[in-house]
Amino acid sequence: MTSDPVRVGILLDPDDDVTVTRTLLAFHDPATETFVMHPSATSRRPRDVAHDVLVALGAPAAALGAQGLARAGNAWAAVRAWVSAYRIDYLIVLRAHRFDADTWEHLIDLTRTTEISLLLVCHTPMVPAVLAATVRGVTCRVTDFAGLLQLADEQPALRPRRTRPQPRRRYGDLPAGLPVSQVMHYRADVYRRQPPEVFALVDELYGRGLDTACRWLQPPQRLAVGETTFAGERLQRLLAELVHDSPSRQHTLALLRGLQAGFLLHGHWLAIPNLANLAGPGTTSPPVTAETVARIRAGVAHPVLAAGLALALITGVDLAALQSLRLDALVAPMHQVRIPFDVGEVRGASKQRYAAGAPPRSVAVFYVAPAARPLLHAARAFLLARHPGDRGQRLFAGFDPVREHLEQAAAQCGLTLPAAPPDLVGYWPMRVRWSRHDRPVHTATPRHPAPGRSCMTAVTPAAYPVLAPAPYRYLHERVGKRWHDTGRSPGVVVHLVHAFLDGTAALRGSYQHTGRKRRLRVLEQDLIACHFAVRTPPVPFHDEVTVHPDIAFALRLTDRPAPAEARRPR
User: Fold this and answer.
1) Does 421 lie in the same domain as 341?
2) Residues with Cβ within 8 Å of residue 246, at least 6 apart in sequence
3) Angle at CA 432, nearest 5°, toward 428 and 437?
4) What gap in Å lies between CA 185 and CA 310, rounded to an integer?
5) Which of 63, 116, 228, 530 has the fewest CB atoms within 10 Å, i.e. the most exposed one?
6) 267 within domain boundaries
């Protein structure tokens, strides 16, 4: 038969020895989730003690009343929420003999509703009668200073534990003015126009995106050939997670172009909208790091307001989108937040500016970084404690208008919210289109070697410079027209890539009939003009086309792109 773990310890210090107090204060270490609370001189009642506990946990004392924690019920609900969300192990309470019976009951109840262990320090020769009555039926241990070290050995929470910080991806500094080309030519343009060290930084990000696509598309996704759809919840989460900690739009673009290349390698096409005026991760959303969360905890005491500030940063959309957010949007393990969207509810200028290109109805999915998840856990725990069973309650019902409260909280934390971001209709991952056009270029099982080589198809880029002549026959075939799109371009591009790898004619096999040769010539000219294809050497005498060198380079199938074009004469 096993005994219940000792969750409550009572330390008697009848002489009020300063050595005991100093020894206990030395245990305070947030890194090991061990906290020491030294109550203020007037703290005896539940509300005051709850405020002292919140301050010991890192909350700002000056904000407790202004943020809705003036009442004892709300204050203790906040204590339980923070303790539960951060899995705090141990709380040492000094001068506990001064508390009244209700305060003792709240402290003991904390061990019943969370996994915390308490050490209650009474500077008296014996356990106060009020405390003795409160802990009746609770497994506890009474000790003195001589037994403190033994208690520390037996209570695992008092032993410092090693915390493993969440790994943070590194991003190198990128210069201004990097190319913003489409995926077909993005990698090639960076290769041609930037120094090798800049290309290496961009290509590392590009490889992350390519690896992410290859892993996500194994096993093959259930999308029929020829089917096109808006990004669903799984794809939105993939997009948001890939770029959630991106420090700039240039880093975001490199990651997304690599992701598009990975989709193309698997016979899929990912149409990503122009991010210039849209909202979301990697654009209007700043990275929410452990440092950001620490600033939120130091400036905000209320769990719901802290979660709201984190969501304002994570979503990067107008704060009005959070006004109607309900509790059921926060679901364990808090790795994502879902906000329903209906384009019919968009009004005013946002409808004129953003409605085109948005899905009729969708659910916007936002990825939550690991550092921010405890904030959402705490908000959910607080609301369920105050309104048990009501999982459809509005998340920010107690903070109306939410914009004003969040802006004030951001100012207190020294954080800057996105300036005039678009409404939810401008959330870019929700506007991404996904289609399937052909079989995969490769079917290798993803692995984890160097970046961009997860499916073992990548070719290392060649050294500079590219000395071959540019593969263009006429002046009008040059860069100026490569932005033009054709309705079937993704499918044709994948077909060109397969023919390039197989060593077969790209288009001739489908156009052998004499009556279709004219259409073939028109298609070839169109593909060449859009820089999807070039004529096979020797140019201009050969009558076949092959995939553009930039596209093969974008998919890491060759070691160099097309050479840079000669400048046009003025």
Assistant:
1) yes
2) 171, 252, 255, 281, 282, 287
3) 165
4) 37
5) 228
6) yes
